[in-house]
């Protein structure tokens, strides 16, 4: 009996018996290609690996708070804590030893300092600016990325200024420009506007250049979706909206082409890096943006994605190391050059072993 695999049956030789160890009635397939040859051993798999995750791909987010020598666990994010600045400095030092290239700072602002306009964001001695200066003093070689948005500083929890329940775009951009300047002057290396206001990338880039901060990088949250995966982050910084939602400025998760328009606009306005957020449910968007643009692409492996992994591990349903590295590699495989992830420290350790 012959088996047909794409060529005329007459052109095929009879299948020969399979050698020792196989069932007696099995026959060797006359295959022109055997894909398993390149998978047969660890060394061949390493040689033909198409994508390799490295520590250089990782950005580690840190949550900071006021106080001295203390930390507070984030209940929905096992292993993640809010840290006082002195503790954040120590964590930055550990990150540098693991060769993590960059950390991202997110503030838990004292509720007494929050108001309708997020004025504390413009304070040159606010929590973020003090953390920037302290970390740069002790570990100048590590990169610092800072979020530009008003939600950690507003009493209402929205990313912009409000008027009669409506988020004001242009008025918000004017405030974001000032926030970005304050952070850059404190020593931030990469400004990352996450608010999704129209035109804020160009306005911030122009202001940085005019202030002589031409070397300050700009990573735009370009395709930031109105996602249900942000819950644990909002607990960490206490930034959940006090009313309404963010659908008028963050993207609808059903949309794909819109992400390319956003990313192209941000690139045209001067973004050095564009970002897709979240990552796991948006791997197609990461791939689209990577194919369409010549800028580095970042992806944010967000808090809800992290929390799901940790919950599964705690219940014994998943191998934490295997699942984490598979997830991060999938994000890189989709096209992300940089991955912001709460797994960064543990992933860095695993990758160095």
Describe this structure in words.
The structure is a single chain. By secondary structure, the protein is an alpha/beta fold. It has a single domain (51-352), classed as Aldolase class I (TIM Barrel, Alpha-Beta Barrel), CATH 3.20.20. Helix content is 35%, strand content 17%. An eight-stranded parallel β-barrel has the order 1-4-5-8-9-10-11-12, surrounded by nine helices. α4 (169-186) packs across α5. The longest helix has 18 residues, at 169-186. The chain starts with 41 loop residues before the first helix and ends with a helix. Residues 1-15 have low confidence and may be disordered.
Order of helices and strands: HEEEHEHEEEHEHEHHEHEHHEH
CATH topology name: TIM Barrel
Shape: globular
Largest sheet: 8 strands, parallel, barrel
- CATH level-1 class: Alpha Beta
Question: What topology emerges from the helices and strands here?
Answer:
Layout lengths: L41 H6 L10 E8 L5 E3 L7 E4 H13 L4 E6 L19 H12 L4 E6 L12 E3 L2 E3 H18 L3 E4 L6 H11 L6 E8 L6 H7 L19 H12 L4 E5 L5 H10 L4 E5 L1 H12 L5 H15 L3 E4 L2 H9 L1
Parallel strand pairs: 1-3, 1-4, 1-12, 4-5, 5-8, 8-9, 9-10, 10-11, 11-12
Antiparallel strand pairs: 2-3, 6-7
Helix pairs in contact: 2-3, 4-5, 7-8
In short:
It is built from eleven helices and twelve strands.
Features:
353 residues, 35% helix, single chain, 11 helices, two-stranded antiparallel ribbon
């Amino acid at each position: 009996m012959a088996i047909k695999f794409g060529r005329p049956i007459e052109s095929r030789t009879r299948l020969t018996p399979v050698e020792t160890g196989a069932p007696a009635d099995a026959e060797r397939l006359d295959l022109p290609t055997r894909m398993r040859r390149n998978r047969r051993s660890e060394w061949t798999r390493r040689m033909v690996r198409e994508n390799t995750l490295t520590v250089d791909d990782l950005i580690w987010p840190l949550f900071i708070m006021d106080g001295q020598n203390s930390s507070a666990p984030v209940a929905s994010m096992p292993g993640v804590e809010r840290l006082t600045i002195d503790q954040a400095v120590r964590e930055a030092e550990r990150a540098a030893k693991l060769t993590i290239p960059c950390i991202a700072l997110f503030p838990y602002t004292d509720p007494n300092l929050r108001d309708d306009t997020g004025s504390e964001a413009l304070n040159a001695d606010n929590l973020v600016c003090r953390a920037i200066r302290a970390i740069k003093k002790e570990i100048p070689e590590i990169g610092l990325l800072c979020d530009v948005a008003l939600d950690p500083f507003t009493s209402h929890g929205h990313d912009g200024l409000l008027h009669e329940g409506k988020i004001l775009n242009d008025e918000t951009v004017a405030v974001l420009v000032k926030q970005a300047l304050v952070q850059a002057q404190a020593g931030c290396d990469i400004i990352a506007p996450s608010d999704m206001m129209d035109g804020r990338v160009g306005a911030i880039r122009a202001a940085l250049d005019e202030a002589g901060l031409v070397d300050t990088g700009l990573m735009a949250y370009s395709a930031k979706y109105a996602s249900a995966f942000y819950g644990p982050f909002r607990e960490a910084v206490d930034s959940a909206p006090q009313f309404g939602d963010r659908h008028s400025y963050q993207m609808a998760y059903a949309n794909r082409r819109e992400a390319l328009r956003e990313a192209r606009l941000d690139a045209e306005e001067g973004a050095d890096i564009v970002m897709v957020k979240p990552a796991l449910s948006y791997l197609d968007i990461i791939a689209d943006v990577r194919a369409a643009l010549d800028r580095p692409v970042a992806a944010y492996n967000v808090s809800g994605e992290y929390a799901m992994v940790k919950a599964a591990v705690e219940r014994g349903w998943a191998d934490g190391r295997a699942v984490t590295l598979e997830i991060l590699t999938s994000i890189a495989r989709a096209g992300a050059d940089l991955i912001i992830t709460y797994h960064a420290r543990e992933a860095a350790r695993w990758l160095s072993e």
